[in-house]
Amino acid sequence: MGPSWRPVVVLGSALLAAACTVAGPPTRDGQSSAPPAPASAPPDRPTGSPSAAGAPLALVVHRSRPARNVPVRTARSVLSGGVDDWGDLRQEPGRLRLLAGPRVPAPGALRLTSDAAVVAAVAADPRALGLVPAGAVTPSVRVLRVGRADPLREPGDYPLTTPGAGPGRVVTVTVVGDVMLGRRVGAAMAASGDFAAPLRPMAQRLAAADVTIANFEATLSRDGAPTQGGDSFAADPRVVEGLRLAGVDVLSLANNHVGDWGSRALVRTVRAVREMGLQPVGAGRSLAQARRPAIVDVGGVRVGVLATDSIGESPAAGRDRPGTNRIDMPPRTGPLDRAALRRVLGDIERIRRDVDLLLVLPHWGTQYTHVAEPVQRRVGRAMVGAGADLVVGGHPHWVQGVQVVDPERGAMVVHSLGNFVFDMDFMRRTQEGVILEALAWDGDLKAIEFVPYVIGADFAPRVVRGMRAAAVLEPFLETSDAPFDAG
User: Fold this and answer.
1) Whole-structure pTM value
2) What is the homologous superfamily of the domain 9-14+170-486 according to CATH?
3) How far apart are the C-alpha atoms of 254 and 307, rounded to whole Å?
4) Superfamily classification of domain 50-162
C-alpha cells in the first residue's frame, strides 16, 4: 500500500517574494555564473517573446568551454557559415566544427538526423558547435549567450529563433550540501547576536532561485539527552533568520544528526521547521510522515523533493516510531535493505505522477573520500529509473562527482556536494564544496552548473574563482562521468 500522506504544496521562495513585494524576486549577486539581463536591451538585441516565431535557437558548446557572450552579428554569421574559428566566439582559438539539427536554417553546418544527435555530438567533442532549438538542450552541454541574453534563462530577450515549440516556464532550483548550525557555529552566532551570519554572504544567491534546498544536520530542540556526545548537534531556533534570508524552501532532515537529542527533540524539530514556513522532508513522528514529500509550486510547475537516510545514529522511523526515512545499505547500515529500497522506489513512482520535476536527497556513503561507494551508484541509478530527475547526496563531507544515468532527459546522480556550513576546519577538503544550480523549462532539465566555494574562519561559505576554484573542482571533476569530468 502507498503511504497515507497528502503532500503540502507551497509557493517557491522567489515566486512568493515576487507576490509580496513591488520590487519582485531577489536577483543574483555579482558572483553569479549567469548574470541577469541588463535593464535595457542594447541596440543590436531585439526584445519580445520568441514564441510567436518559434523556439530560441541555441548555440551549444562542450562543457569544457565557458558560456561567453557572442554579439548578435557574429551569431548570425555563424548561421551563414561565416565563422570557422573559436577565436571569433571569444573562446580559445581553434578550428570549429559546426553541426545543426534537421530543421535549423544553417546552410554552412553539417546537418545531423536529430537535435538530440547534435547535443550528443557536442557533449563528446570540444571542437563542435551545435545549433539546435533550445528545447533540445540538456545539462550535458552549455549554451552561449547572444546579445547578452541566455536562450534558457531569458528566452523572451533572446534574438535568434528557429522553427519549433516556444519556451517552457523557466524554473530555477538551487541545492546546497550539509548545513550544521550548532556546536561552534552556533556559539559564534550567539556571541555575535547574528543568527543569520553563516548564511549571510551567500543569501542573495540562494534566495534568487525559485526553489532552494538544503540538508540540515542538527536538531532545533534539546528536549532529551545527547546521543552522540560532542557530536550531538542542536541549533538555536533563531537560525530561521538565516534560512529565511537565504530563501530556503525545503530542509532535508534525513540524516544521522536529526536524532541527536532523542525522539522528542526529533519530533519537535520537524514541527519547528514547518512552523518556520519551511518544508521538512525525510524525518517525522512516524514512517508515514518521514516518507512525505515536499512539493513546491512555482507558477504552476510542481517541484517535488523526497529524502532518505542510510547512515544510522538517528533512529529509523517505524509505524509509530519517530525517525528517518531509512534505507539500510553499506558502509554504515548495510547490507542493502532491498525491501526498503523497493518502498522508496514505489514512493518515487507515485510522487512522479504528481510533480513536474523530482529531486531525491539520500544521506549515504563514506566520510572523507571523493569516491562514491558502488552501492551509491546502484541505488542512485534505481532512483532515476523510478522517476527522479536529480539525486543529490550528502554525508561524505567532501565533494563526490556526477553519475550520468539518463543523458537524454538530463537525469543524474550527484553523490555529494560537500559541507556548506560546518565547523570541520581540521582539513581543507571539509571546508570546500559546490552549489548545484539547475534550470528547467517546465519539468525538463536544461542546465546544471556546479559553483565552487570555500568555508571561511567565520564558518560562512563564499564563492571562489580562478586557481582556488579549480582546486575545489578538481576532485569533483575527476570522480564525474563524462561530460561532467570537463568542468
Assistant:
1) 0.90
2) Metallo-dependent phosphatases (3.60.21.10)
3) 6
4) Periplasmic binding protein-like II (3.40.190.10)
35, 40, 13: which is closest to 25 by C-alpha?
Answer: 13
pLDDT tens-place string over residues 270-287: 999 999 999 999 999 999
Residue pLDDT, tens place only, 324-346: 999 999 999 999 999 999 999 99
CB 221 within 8 A of CB 269: yes
**What is each CA distance from 158 to 46, 221, 399, 436, in whole angstroms?**
8, 50, 35, 25
* Sequence-distant (≥ 6) Cβ neighbours of residue 37 within 8 angstroms: 148, 149, 154, 157
Cβ(357)–Cβ(445) below 8 Å: yes
Do the two domains 9-14+170-486 and 50-162 of this chain adopt the same fold?
no
Give the C-alpha separation, 406 to 409, whole Å: 6
d(CA 412, CA 422): 26
Q: Which three cell numbers stand for residue 143?
A: 549554451
Cis peptide before 331 (omega within 30 of 0): yes
Nearest alpha carbon to residue 281 among 358, 389, 183: 358
Identify the helix (H) or strand (E) that includes residue 76: helix 72-79
DSSP label at residue 180: -
Q: What gap in Å lies between CA 268 and CA 42, rounded to an integer?
A: 54
Residue 66: C-alpha distances to residues 245, 340, 409, 479 (Å) = 30, 42, 22, 21
d(CA 251, CA 290): 12
Phi-psi region of 92 (alpha: psi -120 to 50; beta: other; left: phi over 0): beta
Structural domain boundaries in the chain: 9-14+170-486, 50-162
Closest listed residue to residue 195, CA positions, set 205, 208, 176, 181 = 181
